[in-house]
Amino acid sequence: MSEPNPPPNSATPEDANPNLAEQIVELSALTGGLAHEIRNPLSTLKVNLQLLDEDWRQIESPPPGRPCDPQDVARRSRTRITTLLKEANRLEQILYDFLQYIGKHDLRLATHDLNVIASELAEFYRPQAHAAGLELELTTSDSPVVCQVDANHIKQAVLNLLINAQQAMPDGGTIRLRVGAAPDGAGRIEVTDSGPGIPEGQRSRIFEAYYSTKKGGTGLGLATTRRIIREHGGTISADSPPGGGAVFTITLPRADS
Questions:
Q1: Which residue among 76, 117, 129, 184 is least enclosed by CB atoms within 10 Å?
Q2: d(Cα 156, Cα 153) in Å, to the nearest integer?
Q3: What angle do CA 109, 112, 114 make, to 5 degrees?
Q4: Burial class (CB in 10 A: 0-12, 13-18, 19+), 92
Q5: Which residues, 6 or more positions from 42, have their beta carbon under 8 angstroms from its beta carbon?
Q6: Is 145 exposed, middle or buried (CB count within 10 Å of its CB: 0-12, 13-18, 19+)?
Q7: Residue 73 and residue 78: Cα distance in Å, rounded?
Q8: Which residues contact 162 (CB under 8 A, 6 or more apart)?
């Protein structure tokens, strides 16, 4: 016996879960983005392996009247191997970022002062900033900014913002990391850079998975940061002041709220 047709006004799965359609769209974009990200490295790997194969075939069976110079082949082979290692590392990073983004975050919430978290992160990141020709300025609040957070995940979220700022300033500049309180009392962390800023047309998309305007970026850093902050019940926003630069603002509920 065939199943009866559902009544015209029956609820669909999307109606039962209003977020389902959004989740399906995000999953589709995520899988499509992953396929796009791995396509170029795989193509480069294939081409260089083919060229290596051709070079070594010339050594094994030199064409008549065209002796092969082994040293020349060795030099070319080393160049190809360097490229292969680079692209293999690139694929490894793509996979790592993907697993970090889709993986379950088991938050270990505890009471932390955001001043301490920011100070520890600044101490960790400052050598990398200096190596890239950047100045990292830290401003903490005069009073504790206590929130219920997973300190390691919050550090990872803010570190992604610092790396994003560094990538926006390849010729050097200044990154400002500031901790304070929002007008409603929520904890606030700001990361400001002196780079070119964010075009208005891109601000609504920069937190999307695999959306990146930077060469070599996987497009998951900011998306992962947004996910971590949302899992803490917080918010994150991006702005670009008229004078240039970009400002990323994280707000987190206070522990006593």
A1: 184
A2: 5
A3: 120
A4: exposed
A5: 91
A6: buried
A7: 9
A8: 121, 125, 129, 136, 175, 177, 191
The CA-atom distances, in angstroms, between 193 and each of 104, 159, 169, 200, 243 are 31, 13, 8, 16, 11
Distance separating alpha carbons of residues 112 and 146, to the nearest angstrom: 5
User: Whole-model pTM?
Assistant: 0.68
CB 229 within 8 A of CB 189: no
Q: Measured between alpha carbons, how far is 188 from 205 in angstroms, rounded to an integer? A: 22
CA-nearest of 57, 60, 39 to 49 is 57
Task: Tell me which residue of 96, 81, 79 sits closest to 38, measured CA to CA.
Answer: 96
Residue 177 dihedral angles phi and psi, to the nearest 5°? -110, 120
Do residues 101 and 223 make contact, with C-beta atoms less than 8 angstroms apart? yes
Say whether 232 sits in a helix, a strand or coil.
Answer: coil
- The single residue listed with the structure tokens 């603002």 is 249
Task: Name residues of the chain where pLDDT drops below 70.
Answer: 1-29, 32, 65, 103-104, 211-219, 256-257
